[in-house]
Amino acid sequence: MAELPVSSPAPSVPQGGDIVYRQRAAVRIWHWLNAFTVFVMLMSGAMIFNAHPRLYWGQYGANFETPWLEIGHTDDAGFLRIGRVTIPTTGVLGLTAHSDRAFPPLVTIPSRYSLADARQWHFAFAWLLVVPGLLFWLWGFASRHVQRDLAPTRRELRPAHIWQDIKDHARLRFHTGEAARRYNILQKLSYVGVIFVLLPGVVLTGLTMSPGMDAGWPWLLWLFGGRPSARSIHFICAALLLGFIVVHLVMVLLAGPVNEIRSMITGWYRLPKEKPE
Amino acid sequence: MTILSRRRLIGSLGAGAGGLLLSGCDRIVASPTVKHVLGLGEGLTRHTQRLVIDRTALAHEYSVHDMSPVFRTNGNTQPNSTSYQAQAGEGFAHWRLAVSGLVRNPLALSLAQIRAMPARTQITRHDCVEGWSAIGKWTGVPLKLVLDHAGVLPTARYIVFHCADDFEGKPFYESIDLIDAVHPQTILAWGMNDQLLSVGHGAPLRLRVERQLGYKQAKYVMAIELTDSLARIGAGKGGYWEDNVGYQWYAGI
Asked: Which part of chain B has CATH 3.90.420.10?
């Protein structure tokens, strides 16, 4: 597959304005499949959480135990409580005009309360998360996408380099020209974090909540320190995935949505022009 | 396009999409085709779990130090049935567990007979489908011993538990297959946390099928029926929750 720029006449080093092939088919297909699947998982997961909107640490946890996180409501106010901190959330979480559940109907599948339906959605779409995810891992290593494009280099991991990239992002000064062909260090760290930490984390903690899997694979309980702990970590991973999506979408908008989205559909990306300093 | 107009456009698109999304999603959720496809996922999960989990793999057993200080009750905590209440009033002295259906010797076992049978005690985790967990100690007769007494016929495939409680007049029942029925931790519990099982937790007898969720742990078990098909029992889906709320029959996940 073409790896080099095709703009004419082809220079040996691509420059700002050149159109380059940046996203391979496997990356693009997996990206859009996940864009769909992860939303179904988050929304059906929000409904499942609504059935018992309290999280615990340890081997057991029910109504008589103290949750470390709770989304609930009093007579007239919704709240999110984390540890000893209570945050008023009326109108958003806990209590809205349309519901007194933790997550409101707009963000759950299905919108009306049904734990049974939400579980059907969640466990069916889990297959779309797990099987293509494993295939992507295999492809990623076999094609050297992981080693070449995602793995940070030693130089990139230097604190000074990371700090520089953070400052550049904060000033919305994105890479241009040839440098924009590669992921920057913050991109690499967040993509590696999602692909190798959050996604496996969310899947393994999901399996730990299954009493059948706990019998079959007892190491799951050992790994996460109990089913309530696994449920908590599952929720944290899901929240971090949501956080990633939000930041990801904001960055796409800031970096040029047409060019970015086109590159994730067709694979072809126009390198941003070098800006005069 | 200026920032302002773009922002306004995104804002109005977002509000419109929200409403569309909600009604659109509900239509998708209600579609029979979608329900069918999701059902395929459920079947895939069940078959995969059966494949990767050894039939005899044990649920984790905890130590006494891991037990929940308070084990909450759930579902029905006091059956409405007057005959049940009469039996409870006399300490279940005249209560009998009926074992019938596809068996060679139908049984009617008294509580004394059941307590005289070999018992297994296990400290296990009760996992509610809603997400909470409680750890308790259960004592009872392995279901396999009862089934061996009755002599299960080769045509039997499912064990149905008929219970004394009901939800708005609909009788409670549950069912498991023979794989779980003969599992060493599947017991008919008459004791909990070193005491006789309380009414709140399902006296006189409750099923413990430890590798599945809480809604399978039928309380107030009155009769056990062996059958080759679940189709003619209740609404045919194998249990009260399965029939009326749509919970999955296989609750290992």
From this structure: 59-244
Half-sphere exposure of B234 (CA within 13 A, CB side): 22
Of the options 3.90.420.10, 1.20.950.20, 3.40.50.10490, 1.10.3210.10, the CATH number for the domain spanning B59-244: 3.90.420.10
d(CA A221, CA A209): 9
Amino acid at A166: I
Cis peptide bond N-terminal to A276, omega within 30: no
- What are the strands, taking DSSP E only, across chain A? 19-21, 54-55, 69-73, 78-82, 85-88, 268-270
Q: What φ, ψ does residue A87 adopt, rounded to 5°?
A: -110, 125
The number of distinct structural domains making up chain A is: 1
pLDDT tens-digit readout, B38-90: 999 999 999 999 999 999 999 999 999 999 999 999 999 999 999 999 999 99
Does the beta-carbon distance from A210 to B62 stay under 8 Å? no
In this complex, which of A105, A109, A211 lies closest to B252 when CB atoms are compared?
A211
Shortest Cα distance from A153 to chain B (angstroms)? 37
Task: Please give the mean pLDDT across all residues of chain B.
Answer: 92
A51: chain B residues, CB-CB within 8 Å: 129-131
Q: Does B133 contact A62 at a Cβ distance shorter than 8 Å? A: yes
User: What share of chain A has pLDDT > 90, as a percent?
Assistant: 86
Asked whether residue A94 is assigned to any structural domain, the reply reads no
Q: How close A208 comes to chain B (CA, Å)?
A: 9
Residue of B nearest to A48 (CA): B130
pLDDT value of residue B8: 54
Cβ–Cβ contact A120 with B under 8 A? yes
Residue A70 has pLDDT above 90, yes or no: yes
Cα-Cα-Cα-Cα dihedral of A132, A133, A135, A137, to 10°? Answer: 160
pLDDT of residue B132: 98
Is residue A4 included in any domain, yes or no? no
Partner residues linked to B123 by β-bridges: B137
- The band of A244, judged by pLDDT with boundaries at 50, 70 and 90, is very high
Query: The domain containing residue A25 runs over which residues?
Result: 19-53+108-270
Q: Kindly provide the ipTM of the predicted complex, given to two decimals.
A: 0.89
Angle formed by the axes of helices A115-142 and B32-52, nearest 10°: 60
What's the gap in Å between the CA of B213 and the closest CA on chain A? 7
Q: Choose the closest CB to B53 out of A60, A209, A212.
A: A212
pLDDT digits (tens, 9 = 90+) for B97-121: 999 999 999 999 999 999 999 999 9
Q: What pLDDT is attached to residue B15?
A: 53
Q: How far is CA A67 from the centre of its chain?
A: 25
How far does the CA of residue A146 sit from the closest CA of chain B (Å)?
A: 29
> Does residue B1 carry a pLDDT above 80?
no
Provide the pLDDT confidence category of residue B30 given band limits of 50, 70 and 90. confident
